[in-house]
Design a protein that fits this description.
With 120 residues, the protein is mainly beta. It is built from no helices and eleven strands. The chain is globular.
Length: 120
């Protein structure tokens, strides 16, 4: 059984930083691209960042580029999202997801989400 468990969310002030973690089990972690998504209140869930398993290629959504950093530790089956210079628009539930590192692969596995709230 595949499980993705996020942690690290919380309530912070604008300008603060947070680091989210997601630990995976039940899948060959070094064969999966890992992604972070977020869903703000009343909005659809959308992509934030992802990282490939071996070459560690990364992609970011434009609004977080330069503020957020995605990384992974394959020995610990864990992916991280370092979030700096947080603002109110970053308030959302953040989800970790996994997809096979193949062309056209879809995100098949999702975590339960962790809430990030940025106060102004």
């Amino acid at each position: 059984q595949v499980q993705l468990v996020e942690s690290g969310g919380g309530l912070v002030e604008a300008g603060d930083s947070l680091r989210l973690s997601c630990t995976a089990s039940g899948l060959p972690f070094n064969a999966y691209t890992m992604g972070w998504f977020r869903q703000a209140p009343g909005k659809e869930r959308h992509f934030v960042a992802n990282i490939t398993p071996r070459l560690l290629n990364v992609e970011y959504e434009l609004s977080v580029k330069g503020r957020f950093t995605i990384s992974r530790d394959n020995a610990k089956n864990t992916v991280y999202l370092q979030m700096n210079s947080l603002n109110s628009e970053d308030t959302a539930v953040y989800y970790c997801a996994a997809r096979r590192n193949v062309i056209g692969g879809a995100y098949d596995y999702w975590g339960q989400g962790t809430q990030v709230t940025v106060s102004t």
